[in-house]
Structure formats: C-alpha cells, structure tokens
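User: Batch of two.

Assistant: Item 1 of 2:
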Amino acid sequence: MQDADHEYPIMEPVVGRAEHSNDSSKGHIMRRGIAVRRGVLFTLGATAFWSTTGLFIDPLVSAYALTPVQVSFWRALLVAPALGLFIAWRQPDAFRLSRREIPYYMVYGLVGIAIFNVVWSASVQINKAAVATALIYSSPVFVTLGARAFFREQLRLIQCLAIGVNVVGCALVAGVTTPGALLHNPAGLGLGLASGVAFAAYTLFGKGATRMGSRSALSILFYIFTISALGLLGWGLLTEGLALVQPHLDKWGWCLLLGLSFGPTLGGYACFTASLRTLPAGTVSLLTTLEPPITAVLAFLLLGRAMTVVQWLGTALIMAGVILIQAGGVQARWASQSTVITAAATDL
C-alpha cells in the first residue's frame, strides 16, 4: 500500500506538464487563427482601397491632363510628410534606421514604389487599361516563386491551382479573352509582365521588412514613400521638367489628388503591409486579385458601366480561386492542430 500511495504524487507532475503543454499548444493555435483572420481582413481592406484608385486617377489624367509620373510623384510627396508628422508625434523612435536597413529601404522604395508606378503607367499607356490590368495580376506567380526561394514558404498543389484560376479570372474581368490580345505587342507584353514583377518585388520586400524587426507598417511606409518621392522627383525633372512640380489643378482637382493620396495610396499600402506580418506573401498576393471584380462592380454602381457575361465569369473564377486558397489554409491549420493534439496525447 505504501508503494501505491507514493505512485500518485510521482505521476501528477507528469500529467500536469502534459495538460499544460496541451493547453499552451491550443492557445497558440487560437492566437494564430486570430492573427490569420486579422491578416485576411487587412488584405481585403487593401484590396477595397485599391479598387477605388481608378475613380480618382481617371479624372486627374483625362480632365486635368496630369501625366502618370506627375500623379505618382504627388501621391508619394503628399503621403510621406503626413506619415512623418504622425510618426514624430506617436513613434519618434521609429526614425532610427540601422545600417542594415538603409540600403534595404532604398531598394524597397525605388523598386517597389517608384519603378513600379512608372512601369505600370507605361503599361497602361501602351496596352490600355484592360490588358495592363490582366498582365499586372501575373504578380501572384512571381510572388509565390519568390516567397518559396527567399522565405521557404511552402508551395502546395491547391495554391498552384488557385494561381491558375485567378490569372484566368483577372484576364476575363479585364476583357482579355484571346492570347492574341497579349501577343500582338511584344513590347507591351514585356512592360505588363515587368509591372507584375515590380509589384511582386514590393510584396516580397514588404514581407522581408516585417521580418526584420518590430517596425510598424506606417514607419515602413514613411521610408519607402520618402525614397520613392525623391526617386520620382529626379526621374520627373529629367523627363518632364518643371511641369512635374506645377500641376494645373483647381480646388476640385486638389481634392481628387488628396483623396487619391490618403485613400487608395495610404490606406491601401498600410493595410497591405500590415497583412504581411501574419500571412504568407503568396496568400496575400492571391487575395489582392479580388481588386479587378471590385473595381468592375464599382464602375457599374457609380459610373454606369455594365459588366459583360465574360466579366461576371471572370469574377466567379477569382472568387473560386480565393475560396481555394482559403480552404487550403484551413486544411493546413487543421493538420497543424491535429499534430499538436496527437503529440499531447502521446505525452500522456
């Protein structure tokens, strides 16, 4: 009996440790699930912001004759000081950059913002909006490959399927129904794919920035928009002269430019950068392919531009691709949870 009495005190700590490990693992899974949902909401917020970009840019380019470089420069110029003032008030320590961060943010701002905007604008001019939009959403392919190479993100079959479905869907929403629409202009095709690569670079640089430390999304944006504004200033003065800094805008024109800067630009990029903290870069890139159908719906509701049957089919394909990638994420989380529970049961 004495041996039996001593048996339980010996076993209690072992059982207690297993239960504590099980509870801790379940808590980690719950926190991870909340973070993933927050990341999805941030991505959808970025997509919603970016979907309104055309509503601001169209009148600025058509009615006020601003060039794409002027629009890009003024967006960056207005956003950067506003972010600087906010950071000086709330996060003064964020102005400190380490030596490792300086070259990283210089490349990030020049490639991810300045070059991307110039290449995207050139693609729109040569390819027109429909084909340019279809080509820029080749970016999920480049993001997925880059994330696999640089961040060791897992590449699943369901993710590859979702990429293919989304690329086809974006092409249909943009009105591109035959390969000939893409192949008749090799220079335009190259520019369009370059815009996809540049946006993929922005996504991957953003993922890297969120992994470098605890720097907030707004401080990241401050540096890349400041560097972008300086880069676009140099480029614009060379190509457009002093007209770059002398936009002919009335009161309504300035309202449009301010709305573009602090709506789709600041709001979209802030949400997008924040989402990269909790979601894989490939998943974030795929979710942003919801932008073309949202833009088409807004154009229908606000501008009276009706969507064709083909565009509705493309919208359905994009939604199917997003559902596929989300289903894959849920499956992966269930697999992770099952592994944790099995390990805890083994400890018992």
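Item 2 of 2:
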Amino acid sequence: MRSRPVRARMELRHLQCFLVVAEELHFTRAAARLHMEQSPLSRAIRELEEDLGVQLFQRTTRSTRLTRAGRMFQRHVPRIFAALEQACDSVRGVANGFPDQLRISLSDCCARPRLPALLALCRQEDPEVALRLFEVPLSQQVRGLHEDVYDVGFSLTNEVGDGIVAHPLWSEPMVVAVPARHPLLAYRHIPLDELLRYPLVLFDPQACEGQARLVDRLLRRLDQEPLVADRVTSFDLMLTLVSAGLALGLGSASLVSASRASGVVARPLAGRVPMVTTYLLRLDAEPSQTLARFIERVTPVESPACGSPADCTQPNISQDVET
C-alpha cells in the first residue's frame, strides 16, 4: 500500500503549534503560550491533521487528549527541530571557519570539573572542530546517541542498553556535602547511620537518573528510610540547599569541591566508600576520525580537585574542602 503523501501546506508553524498543544492539552493555554488567538491555532491543528490524514487530538467541550497517532507524532516532531537547529549551526560553523563539529552530551553534571581543560585541549589540537555542548537527562542522552543527535556523551552510569558502548573514564569517592557549623562535622568520616539522622536533598530520578541511582544504592544499605527534604534537578540546586543549611547532600568529590557554593564542606563517608565513575558513551560503531581523536584526549585530562586521575580513585579524603 502506498503511503499518503504529505501536502506542501505543512509548515514549521504547524509543528510548533502541535507541540505546544500536546504539552498543554488545552487550546486556550496553548494559544496564550504562542501569543496568538485560539481560532487560528485550532485552524493550524486542523490543517495539520488534514495534511497527515489522521486525527491527532480527541477534543470535547471538557478536555483535549492526544490520540495514539498524536502520541507517536509527539515523539518524532522534536527531532525535526533538532535536525533543523543542527543544520543551521553546521552552516554557521562552516561560515565561521569550522568545517567539522562534535556534539557532546552531558547528563548528571558529570565531567564538569574536567570540561574546561578538555575543551581547551580540543580547541588547541583541533581548532577547526566546533564543539557543541548539551546538558540533558540520561534517557534523552541515550536516545540522542541512537538518533545521531549527539556524537558522544558523558554519564554516571553504564546501564545504557544495547548499541551503546560505555567506556569507564574516572572514578572518585562519593562524599557528603555538609553545611558549615553542622554537628556532623565532628566526624572526620561520617557514618552512614549518622547521616540518615538528618534531612537529605536527593536528586530527581528522571532529571538526574545516574546520580539518583548511585545515591539510592548507598541508602539501600540500611533499612531506615531517609528523611527527604527535597528532590532537585541539578547539582547546583542541591548545593544551594546545603549551603543554606536546609539539608545534607551527596555527590562526587570533584563536583562538591569544584562548586562555588559558600559554606559547604566535603566530608568523606566512613566504612566502604561508594565510588562515582564517569563513563564516555558512544554508538557501538566505528567512530569518526574527529570522535576518535576526542576519545584519545579524554582519559589523560585531570580534575582540578585531584592531582592526577589516579588520585581520584583513592577513597580516603584527608582534607575538608570548603568553597
């Protein structure tokens, strides 16, 4: 059976209207977001449905819902805008003297302490390669690698499914982010059961999936449920709450020590210290020459918090770090 051709009437504005209505599931709110009247918005959706030959929304006087076809379309349309944005950036890059590019995705704030040195080295050794950075959730990172939205990624987990190779890069101890003048600072190494006596700020499992997995495995060592003060979507927000004295946090030694939050002390855990490993993610295929050169540069890059990559693997932190 031949597929029904899409008429040329479809424009990017139709797709933008669809995405906003799909997010809001309310035409009035969607029209307000798009700064347009509801009538032309409804007409744009109707034209799009006519072009596709399918119904994208089920509309009643009380509700608006995506149909099965609408949900499928919602998953695919963002790729169109991503591809268009990349095409525009590539053209601008060529015009500005960058004939090649490397699209680097970051999840869970990983690799951040090493990024400045790594990017400076790349610019020095590959000046004609434009470097583009994307901070995204792990699920979007993995999907983007499969769909050629990103060339490479940094993650805190190697549980990324088939078709993706996860190279372990750096390992360092997990530490407790403690507010200044907190009672737990009486400990040089904080026992886990003492940690659970105080409120914790944890990571949102969707926005910071890798970080959330690591912390969850640590807390599962004890039967006691933690007292959760909040769940945050970024490492910086976690440190802000810690600095304000509202809770304790957990994170890698380099991230806590490299932060700019004032009044935060990095204190090691007692006993068996969990390690935080950063992985380089790429498709399980022959890498391009540009990507291969990038991979060669990554491993030797040191963190400002560690004298060398080997130092980061030592679980015993002998000094507090205040930032």
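Residues 12-77 form a domain with the Arc Repressor Mutant, subunit A fold (CATH 1.10.10.10).
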